[in-house]
Predict the 3D structure of the following.
Amino acid sequence: MKIFILILQLAWFIALAPFLSGFITKIKNNIRMRKGPSIFQPYYNLAKLFAKSEVISETASWIFRVSPLVVFSSYLTASLMIPVFILLKPFSFIGDFLALIFIFALGRFFLALSALDTGSSFSGMGSSREMFISSLVEPTICLIVFSISLQFGSTDITVFSGMHTVSIAAIITALSLFLITIAETSRVPVDNQETHLELTMVHEAMVLEYSGRSLAFLEMAAYIKQMILFFLIAQIIFPVYLPGPINLVQIFLWCLWYLARITIVAVIVAFVEVAVAKMRLFRVADFLGFAFILGIIAVVCAVMGV
Amino acid sequence: MISLLTKQLFLFDPLALFFLAVIFVVSLPSAVYSIGYLKNSYSPKKIFFSWIILCAFLLSMALVVSTRNLIIFLVAWEIMSLVSYLFVIFDTTHEKSIQAGMIYIVMTHLGTVFIIAAFMILRNYAHSFDILAIKTACSVIPRTEKNIIFLLFLIGFGTKAGIVPLHIWLPYAHPQAPSHVSSIMSGAMIKTAIYGIIRFVVFILGASYSWWGILVLIIAVTSCLVGVIYALMEHDIKRLLAYHSVENIGIILLGVGLAMYFISINKQYLAVFSLIAGLYHLINHAIFKGLLFLCAGSVYKATGTRDIEKLGGLIKRMPQTAIYFLVGSMAISALPPLNGFVSEWLTLQAFFLGALQVTGGMKLFLGITAAMLALTSGLAAACFVKAFGITFLAEPRSHYALNAKEVSLSMKIGMFILSLLTICFGLAAAIIIKFLAKAAGAATGIEISSLKFSLNNFVLSTNGGLAGAGSNSYLSVPLLAFMLIMLAIAGFGFYVFGRKRAEIYKTWDCGYYKTDSRNEYTATAFSKPFRIAFSFFLLPYRRTQKIRESFYHVKSFSYETHTTQVFKKYIYNPALTLIFRSAKLMRRIQPGSIHLYLGYIFVILISLLMFMQKF
């Protein structure tokens, strides 16, 4: 039974994560009065990449080859900590919210290394920028977990996955997490997924040398990471109210609500991306500083109990 | 007779045993490593000499942590400092070694002065040099004296540990010693200072007042940030590691400081837990920093340079060293499932659990301190992406790296043992914590068996150890590692199944088919965003020079960038100037006349006699 749920959960993430990106792109294009690619474009891209052959740089070592797998498996492991089918908690002993952050760091570390591996100055630039942004993200995430721990009494993800009242502290925490998510999923004010402009790219620069299946794995990993972060935001501000006993109908309803919530977050992200302009790299420090201040305010609110 | 002597002289409680374990866990692999490392680099006579001083060094460290007599402690402490000084100046031909040795010996003696002063005050109350006797006598020491003793110990041991701003000697001395000694100095020697703090401040003085813990926390978090920011700017691989020692001492002291704070507010469960986190990071740091120094030594041995800007591509030339260095880098960057991750997770949990039990502003303080710890670990990861990426990946940046060869077997064995330990200490965390709990219990004097620890399966109950109610924070490192590996294997299956043959081709170079190692990203460039973001602290400056052939044609262009060493410039240099200036003033009373000197002696004698009358 546990194995079955495990596979179900993995399938859930792998199947639905690309959809989220396609959905955001679609909304962005609709706001801009464009038709845009289909919602299922990420799936087509993945299928295409999977069928293609790879080109590997002659400079690259084994780090370059294993990185996509490490990145993929670390984000997928992180996804196992997310209570998708909340009423069936099969994996509650892998780790908590803190461990999740550290696992993200594992994937990022290898991605940044693989970028340096090819010797291309573009990917080196991407690697440097990614590590810069992510290290400034780290304290804010810690404050977010801290605030959640103060509000719910634990760093366990399941404690705030169920029913809870939405306090001011929770809203500010979610807001701070939202800014962090924008930075971590390489979205507009921080990075831009749509361009290959050498002056601005961060994530795209790191994966520049990848092609074929390796790239497919990396893209998939990025989608999964995005879905996890969206889920966490949704979880804090849209809690669950499930009456009655646990049965299949309940689980089905929960899954629908799950999707609905992350879709709402995705819509907000899309609007934000259209509304703001890309920042200069060194302005990103200010942006993340703002997120940090929000994190502190969230902790203060949590301390005051509002 | 002998057993009586050992009872009188030694104290083998769990705390001492733990530190003995730390010392030997780093030293033995380093000793094995040194066989290959010293060969061909030094004359046989010098190698023989190095073995003798290595033994003296290890024995003195072992004596420091196991003696119960303060006099013996001091003697051992001095031998440890002097012998390690011999190692710092081991490369006598190097001018830098002499300078580093000078800074080291001055700083370490400065620290010892404070320790001696503290010992003298303690002795004044206890009338004994025995540690246990002093512990019992401690209850009569008045508040102000206790505070003074604490501060003296903090400065004295802090100098040896390398806390900011007393860290100044560490980035000079550690890199200059031979690599196996750097590994022991960083892995074990600076830990004896932490032993001193735990033994004398926590065990003997009992961490009585809450401001002690808070002060230690503030110092610790400053050390973390300063250490890691300087490390990011550093391109000498061994100095980079030395700065990371400053950072990691900070992380260890975060655990110790939290324990001190919780003892003072009488939260015993949390105190033991925080100390466990601190001790765990201590032994982890000993292992992975020892490993990293050994790897850095291998790189130095193979290439002849420590400047990472000149390296690159070593992963193909030294594949095994590269793997060991990668393991060490991952551990120090706190990546799961290795040991650094477990101890940083525990330290953060200590903050989080503690915050649930304290009130008001203290919660916020703990939160921000924890956030700074997270920032540190993020920056450390960036630093090690730089260190590993620039040293081992891409194409060689100079002939130094081009001709590198894999190192000899004994060196590989030394590194292998430590990387194995790095992995084991991550996976077997639940078992190790049981041992650490004993040491932490002995240090804090808290009966751990009466506390309901649900740590053995790594579940932390949030409500002060009373298992049951409340939700738990949990972590299972083996399961985590298992899932990571299984999913990677599954991914690999998908990756290879029916794939087309991969093509090996040049790195994309915008159609300009002449890229070489000069186009690669450098360490300076990699750390540029950090240099700009932390410019308020680093105060970077650059020098550019154009040599012109004519007004229109620039023949050559040189560019230098440096960061200002704030502590050196604004604290140590003014202090040195002050000392030299006052020395010049003092010279006036030394005109060389024997009559005057006799007069001085007379005056001193009279004043001493008058001083004696007072008591």
